[in-house]
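Record copied across here:
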Amino acid sequence: MVNIDITAYDPEQVRLMEEMCILVNKNDQRIGADTKKNCHLMENINKGLLHRAFSVFLFDSENKLLLQQRSDDKITFPSQWTNTCCSHPLNTPLELEETNQIGVRRAAQRKLQHELGIKQEQLPLEDFVFLTKIHYLAPSDGIWGEHEIDFILIIRADVNFEANKNEVKAVEYISKEDLQKKFQNPGDWKFTPWFKLICENFLFDWWEKLDNLEESKDIHKIHRL
């Protein structure tokens, strides 16, 4: 058993580690719940603990993608650049509902407001386009990591936002071409592993089809990356 002094981390981030994530099997069937802390310990991940997550890609009317740099206070993957919002539906009645991914959509609304201050009325649930799921495992620092079935959501909207500094260090809208350049020449930008996986496998193709995402949907498949 790894002995972790979690009190050494930011108090608000420690509090959020007590949220209850949804445990799933490799086919995304619910099998229970556990704390965010337990779900993100590599000791448990290495034993197969798997939870449900989502990743939102928010594009504006110029087809630029809103990126965020995770806060230095984050316990996992601090200071790294990633897609607009990445988090977890919680083990609550509203976010457990699976019809039309409604629970995941509600979680996305909730976290976009929490992290970026985007009002929920600017992001109607029906405007989130669910494309597919990915299953991946990524260590953070040897102690913490991710092992998720990740629902991929795209939404197009011009929004007002005010970043929660405990969650988000910086934000930037970026074009497809500029993001591709960043991957080739990252400089001091470090990207989260799930964002890199999604970009390398899917995102740049989806970006070309934002006006018609129907042909990009693969809603019954879980991609093992």
About this structure: The chain has a mean pLDDT of 96. The chain has one domain: 6-224. The first helix runs from residue 11 to 16.
